[in-house]
Each structure stands twice: as structure tokens, then as C-alpha cells.
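Section 3.1 - Work completed
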Amino acid sequence: MNIVLLSGGSGKRLWPLSNDVRSKQFIKMFHPDGSDSKDDLESMVQRVYRQIKTVDPNANITIATSKTQVSAIHNQLGDKVSVCVEPMRRDTFPAIALAASYLKDELNVGEDEPVIICPVDPYVELGYFECFKDLGKMVASGDYNLNLMGVVPTYPSEKYGYIQPETKDHISKVSAFKEKPDVATAQKYIEGGALWNCGVFAFKLSYILNRAHELIDFKNYKDLYDNYGDCKKISFDYAVGENEKSIGVVRYSGEWKDIGSWNTFAEEMHENAIGKVDMDDACVNSNIINELNIPIIAMGLKDMIVAASNDGILVSEKTQSSYIKPYVEKLTQHIRYAEKSWGSFTVTDVQEGALVIRVELLPGHRLHYHSHELRDEVWTVMIGEGTAIVDGVKTEIKPGDVVTLKAGQKHTVIAKTRLVLNEVQVGKDISVEDKIKYDFPE
């Protein structure tokens, strides 16, 4: 199977654990199947990737994502995972067109091959991905140009669109699509046999490439990538779904959740508390997630969510947590935590003209060889061993060592073991833009 996972999201609804770089699919809050260790947690992207590989070890998975998420994907899934990068966000149809061109021109996937598009963040059981085999067979048969997976509804939801199949067979022709309704209308749809639209669809690679060339003027993957900013923002449903008459759907009747708020996230947490948390016996139906290295003590909480990270602290009644987005959009502070391909960084203190960052590198990884024009830096090694390179000069470093870097000096660090540095930045204009990259020194 060729599977494209769409990874997007701005990280507003699960603040403060999510942000523009660390969207909800990267938050580690779930136990892998069969594990109950509090230290053994996985994110949604890790869970979905693992589930697909469990069902089909030979599945070819490509993740379509924005530039800001690439480092987090490599951090959590490894350097070998296939990633198609959007230069900027242009909605789902341009993203899928770019991914299709990437499959053809960069990965040499044949145009008759089936391709399945799936969101990166569904909370599902393995049977969900077993249905992908049915989708592959539907594509191979050629009975329909576009093939969907519909979820058998468990309640009349206002949050989802609905697919109306002609029959109640496992595989059926689609007669109509229904937009997100009110509850009463949703109940009528369900009584008529409608299915939730879970955003999964499949087609031959040639199908979507032909549709892409009809709507976008491009020659190949590189041409589309270079001119991606000229693409009109349009969803796949509007560009393709509404204009296609030959559509089939396969039914999925197992567990499926679109986890998009703290309330729904809490429903799938395997324990009430993660991190340094102590809750008294009077706490009822409450969840606390603490990423800070200080304790949280909770007493008498009822139906509450508490989430704490270096980006902030949320204290909310569970149902109210769904309305957090406009409050987060008012915030103007810089991101204080991000996972990178080499490890992670956490901003621990911000002062006028100074910044303190905790930098953690994975064994065998390194920073880019770079310099800054407007700031000095001081590294203090807290944990681990590695090699610092400053203006081409290598120095072995260990806990307690201090490396002083002046503005303009080229520098990097290579981790031999897990390496934790305390980095103090001092300057009048500290910003992420103040960085010049160089080729790595031999």
C-alpha cells in the first residue's frame, strides 16, 4: 500500500502542550498496545505509524506536512521516514497534489498504483487500517474513480460531514454527501444509513495527477514545489469530491475518534495524571498533564483539565476547554518548546537582552554548523559527553565544562551520548532569524 498521512494543524486547541511547531499529533500521551508503563508513552503520529506497519509491514508511508513539523516527525519516527514538505500551507488539495507528484517523481511510484490518503491523527483500533486493504482492492477493481472509508456513526454528531451510500452493503456506491448538520438532522441522516466522513479516500495515482494538472499549471514535482505559493487554497472535497460522480465507500464499524480538544484527549488517557502530579481522593473525573519539572498538587477538582508546560498553564472545566482557541490566538510569545530531528529545546527563562535554553541532543546527533551576528552564547554541559567545534577547533566536552561563543564564531556540537546543555544567549536583538549556516567542517 502507498499511504499518505496528512499532518497539519496549528496547535491551538491543546495549548499549552501544543503550539505552531508541536501540533496535537506529537504530544506523547498514549500507551503503546500492551504497555502500562508511565514512562512508555507514544504520540498520535507514532501510534498511527505503528498501527499501519502492524497491519502491513510493507506499507509505503509518506507524511505530507509543513516545514515547521519536519523536525518533530524525524524526532519521533526516525530519519528514514518519507516526508513530502509543503513550502507553505495551501489546504488539502494542493497538499495532496504535491504529495502525488512526490510519489511519482521522487519515489517512482507507478501511476496505476493505489494511493490512500489519511489524516495523521485518528484515534482508532487496528481494524481501521485493515479496511485499507478493502480500499486497495476497490482501487484495483476500477469500479469507482474515488473510494472513501465511512465510519458507522455511534451518535448524531454536529462535528462531522456525512456520506450517504446507496445500500447498506460493506461496499457501496455513494449517492450524496451531507455537510455538518444540526443534531436533529444528523439523527435523520443516521436513520437513513449515512456514515461519518472520516477524511480517508483512495484512488489510482494517475487519477489525482490528472485532476491536479487540470486545476494547477505545473510540469512535475519540482515545478509544483517551486511555484507552490501560486496555488489556490482549496480543499480536496471541493476540488475533487463534489465534482466526481463515480464514488464508492467501504464501511468501518469499529472505534474511531477525532481527538481535537482537551476533553476528548482526556477520554483516552490511561491514567488521570502524567508527570509530577499528586491528586487527593476528592478529585473526580479530572486529568492533569504536567511537563514542568516542578510538582502540581490538586485537591477536590471535579470535571477539570490542568495542563502545564513551559508555554503556559491551562486550568479549565472539561467542556469549556473546547473554546480555548480564541484565547490562545491572543498570545504573542515565542514558542518555548520544540522537538527537532537532533533532539529538543526548551526555553527556561526570558529576560531583556538574554535568553536561557535547555538543549538536549540525541546520541550521535549534532547541531548545524552555524554562527550568530547579534548575540554571544555560553554553553554549560549538564549531562553527557560530546564534541564542541568552534571555528574549526574540536574540543571534547563533559558535565561541568563551559564553552564561550562570541558573535560571528562558527560553532556546533556533536553528542556522543545523550547530551544536555544549558545555553545562555546574550544580545540586544535575539531572534531565530539571526543564524548563518555553513557546510560541516571536515
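Second construct:
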Amino acid sequence: MKVVIIEDEYFSAEKLRFLLEKLDPTIEVLAVLPSVEKSVAWFSAHAEPDLIFSDIQLEDQESFELFERLSIDAPIIYTTAYDQYAIQAFKQNSIDYLLKPIQPEELRAALKKYENQAYRLLKKGLLPTPQPTKSEPKERFMVRKGNGFAVVKVQDIAYFKSEDKLSFVVTFDQQKLLIDATLEELSEQLDPRRFNRISRNRLVCIDSIHKIHPHFNGRLKLELMPPDEEEVFVSRDRATAFKEWINS
């Protein structure tokens, strides 16, 4: 099980990590996030975990703000020292509400709730079957070209775009070729150091970015090489993660 902990108190986060690993050694903590802004950046750049443990009072805002800004489907177990947030918490995608200091028995019961919920969803076909561990980034893709197919090396790809529910590869030599994959699938197969999902319909290579301009409402406007047929923007929710990616 892959888990994210949203917690601004270091010792609380470490205690929770210790308890989780003691209760189930197969649990993998992907990240410990101390604020809403850092959480937005992380979730904008990574696939969702299986389960989220979230404090409510973080170093910048209440964690409810995160779940209002982003559409996150992963179930949440709230962990807090205050009981007045319980009703609001259960309006989110919450399966339990644990008061600090967290007791091992209560944590075990919360994990059991998650397992029971996941089992029910899986039986109903509403939860995807677990996938194998992610392999090395792909080096080439098969694309449609004319009446046949061609192979495009990743190093030749400037960006991917989706139009009318179809996905296309755009190469540095300005070819636009149809590919049988969604941008979500492609983002899982590419090296995250070189490719970034800047919006719902654009996945760009860092080498294709010519200029970056601030834009209205927190968005960023990009000039790509080769130029896109339309104006290209980094969405507001992804802007912070995009800047971190550029500077990494």
C-alpha cells in the first residue's frame, strides 16, 4: 500500500510512519508534506497514493483547502488534535477521523476500514486492479503514420497533446503523429525529469520550452519549439510544481 502523510509536525509524522510500518511492513510512505502549497505541488506532479493521512491544521492553511483545489480520489484518514472538524472532514473523501495522540489500536481499526472499503470497490469493479511496479522510462513509441506505423524515439519528441479525445506526438522536426495512448498513460511511461504534464491536454519535454511568461490568474504561458498551433498554458494548480520541476 502506498501512503502519503500530510503533517506539519515532524515528530507526529515520524510517529505515524513508525506505527504504520509496525502494523504493516508492506506500507510505503511516498511523501511527508507539511503544507497545502507543497501538497498541491506534489499531487500535481505524482500519481495518487492508495491512502492519505492528513492533519487539518497545517503550517499555511487547513488541509481542506487542498481537497477543494484539487480533485483527489484517494481516501483520507484525518489525524488531528481537535474534534471540532469531524463533520467537515466526513464531507470530504474521509473514511476515518483519528484524534492525536494516535493509538495503535485505533490506527489498526482505521486501516481495516480502508481495506474493507477497497475490497467492496474492487468487487464492484469500481477500483482498478493493482498494477505492477513502474518500469524504466520508455525510450521509443510506436505511432500511426499514413496507413501504417512508425517508431519515434523519445529524444525526438518535443511534446504530446490531446485533441478531441485523441493523443498526438509532436516531434522537434515538426511532425504531428497519432499515438494510441492517453496523456495519463504516457506520463507514467516517461522520465519525469524530462517530461511534465502542464495541463489536461499538454505533456511537454523540458527541451521544447523556449520561453515562460507570467499570465492572468496564476497561470504561466509557454512558448514551445516547435510552436504549437494554439496558445499553451500551465494551469494554476500545476504552476508551483512546474516551477519546481524547471529548477530541479
